[in-house]
User: Fold Cytochrome c from Paraburkholderia sejongensis.
Amino acid sequence: MLNHSSRAQPDRPLRPAPRRRFGGAALAAAFSVFSLSIAWHEARGPRAQQSDELPITQAYADDAARTPDDTAAPAGPLANGDLIKRGQYLARAADCAACHTADKSRPFAGGLPISTPFGTIVTPNITPDPDTGIGRWTDADFIRAMHEGIGKSGERLYPAFPYTAYTRVTEQDVLAIRAYLNTLQPIHFTPPANSLKFPFNQRWLMVFWNMFNFTEGRFVPDPQKSAEWNRGAYLVEGLAHCGECHTPRNFMQGLKSDARLSGAVLAGWHAFNITPDKLSGVGAWSDAELRAYLATGAAPGRANAAGPMGEVVANSTQYLTPVDLRSIVVYLRSVPPVSGGDTRSRHDWGAPADDVTGLRGTAVKGVNGAQLFVANCASCHNWSGQGVGASAPGAYPSLIHNSTVGASDPNNLALVILHGVNRTTAHADVMMPAFGGHLDDEQIAALTNYVTRQFGNPQATIGASRVAKLRTLQ
Ligand code: HEC
Ligand code: HEC
Ligand code: HEC
Assistant:
């Protein structure tokens, strides 16, 4: 057993704040008092009870009994090779690489800048390098980081590291991930420093953030629910941290748990509502479509995965076993549906273009979206917008009945045109070129507006200045 007493740390600043101008200190003090008062109310509120560490072994045992699957947790200790294999599977489900691999030639060595409203946080090196990575960390240090968001010297970690979700992951799974990380090539690399503004560079202030945005505690299986539901909840709310992108945030960047998975914006991208609401969410999708989307990134007639979701599919969900994918879908079906007020589903818009002569146009005056479409897009998506290859792996998808084209906000479409699509899975290598380099903001706006008007939601329109802004995000 681990020595838990060595993990107890005083909740006081270990790196005392340097002396600052009065304004900053007063702001920090006011923030602290405010936080304390909210925390006091929270502590007495209905959500106050802490979930204690309970074994998930029962749910796993049920799982294992039903499905002879190498991802179900073992009854006894694992042989070393199996432990590492399991750790790799879990690290993929948790998508550690999404943030800790900035450069493919330096896997897990960090260096990815993450922009937040408070400044930029750069991911650290988590290879076993003793000087620049986590080679000198004990297992207890590692568990404390994953479960409590506390670094090796007791410093508070920023929630850009999703410990708020990983806190639900069992100790056994955290240790399997560690065992896998230990087998990686140690890389000697120190990522650039964070650039956060005062007072956000004061890590100890996270004590207050945690008080009302973080509930420490392992996932507690619900005995009323099936093993599949429990496994799905464990993945969605814990390891796979879907809510980190799909759940809206409050003014402090904490997740709004009462609007779970109802959609949020990150770096311009809309991570859509994935609650079971029929119109605003994914309630109209079949189970098989949801599984196909997570396994391959394509659900013909519904959606394709581009941008951050394309990466989630390529780095993480494509590796999940059929049992785990099924469990995720079972759980997604059960979260409270949240309506965004839509009157028609994102994937339910559009009709094929039926007049190619109209598209060719006569006099070229100014920027013409239809002509830009014929020149740049029709070779793959067809001038009618119906795509090529229907539902075959790697098909050029139809733009009709596509959630990105039918969304009420045109950002994702403009971003897809700017950056293209690049997604490699065991299923197919899909590649759509990026047009950001040779089309200007006005052309991309005209093209976006043509595509939404013709093939999607005509209310979604964009101007050149918003395209210019989207270009700067990432
Ligand atoms: C969404 C992005 C993201 C994901 C996913 C992520 N991390 Fe991190 N991680 C970060 C950031 C950002 C930090 C630095 C936080 C800070 O500076 O306070 C961090 C810090 C850490 C630290 C502390 C390292 C140190 O030197 O203090 C460890 C350990 C860690 N992550 C492990 C993991 C593991 C293991 C996974 C997968 C299970 C993972 N992370 C997934 C963003 C991420
Ligand atoms: C890094 C951020 C991120 C994470 C983590 C993430 N998603 Fe997404 N997701 C997105 C974005 C952005 C889109 C929109 C993609 C597009 O327009 O091509 C999306 C789209 C989707 C869609 C398609 C919805 C539609 O109507 O088109 C589903 C389903 C989905 N995500 C499920 C999940 C599940 C389940 C998880 C956890 C296993 C997850 N996502 C984790 C960012 C994320
Ligand atoms: C070389 C072929 C090619 C060209 C040219 C091309 N695309 Fe694509 N497009 C693709 C492929 C491949 C995908 C991704 C399919 C997948 O996700 O499985 C895609 C996906 C899309 C999507 C769906 C993205 C999502 O997140 O759901 C849209 C919208 C789109 N393209 C619009 C356009 C527009 C507009 C143009 C012209 C500016 C264009 N494409 C040019 C091949 C192409």
